[in-house]
Amino acid sequence: MEEHDKFKSQIRSIYRLLTTLMVLFGITALAVVYLISDPTLSFFKEPTPVEEYAVVPSEDDFDKIENGIHVRTGFKDSEGLMAVVNNCTNCHSAQLVIQNRMNAERWKATILWMQETQNLWDLGKNEDIIVNYLVTNYPPQKKGRREILRDISWYDLKE
Asked: I need a surface site. Which of 32, 87, 100, 135 has the fewest CB within 10 A?
């Protein structure tokens, strides 16, 4: 019986040793995983204050015009500018408007398409103001071939 108790005691001590080793192994594994995911140990450091880099225009600069261009959007300064800014740039970039050069009929069709498919509100009297502004300042451009080359000094390729 004494041998049996001695054997049980040895098994218990082996069990405790294995349990301790497994706990240490688990803690080590968690530490390694944490180091892999955050090698700078940022969790244990004080957070650094975030600096704001975005320049927010002051109220004076918000609708500033320089050299005939609305600075914030890039639109040309002309009658109807603010109607275009207030109605068009709520949903998309001013650059999207500037790059699409169309006649009045196409602009109206585009506005109708936006109203039917993109939830654009009814522009009311502003529609004519907006279309007139766009046709005046961003009309269709004729794209053609380059000019004929003149006064070119040609040379012969040597074989």
From this structure: 32
CA angle 93, 96, 102 (to 5 degrees): 140
Euclidean distance between CA atoms 82 and 90, whole angstroms: 12
Q: For residues 36 and 156, give the distance between their C-alpha atoms in angstroms, rounded to a whole number.
A: 64
Maximal CA-CA distance, the chain: 117
Alpha-carbon span 106 to 108, nearest angstrom: 5
What distance lies between CA 6 and its chain's CA centroid? 72
Q: Which residues contact 90 (CB under 8 A, 6 or more apart)?
A: none
Q: Angle, nearest 10°, between helix axes 126-137 and 104-117? A: 130
In this structure, are residues 138 and 95 in contact, taking their beta carbons and an 8 Å threshold?
Answer: no
Quick one: tokens of 133? 């502004």
Q: First and final CA of the chain: distance in angstroms?
A: 107
The answer, yes or no, to whether residue 109 has pLDDT greater than 70, is: yes
The strand pair at 69-70 and 65-66 is best described as antiparallel
CA dist 98 and 7 (Å) reads 89
CB atoms near residue 152 (< 10 Å): 6
pLDDT digits (tens, 9 = 90+) for 46-60: 777 777 665 555 666
Tokens 């053609």 -> residue: 144
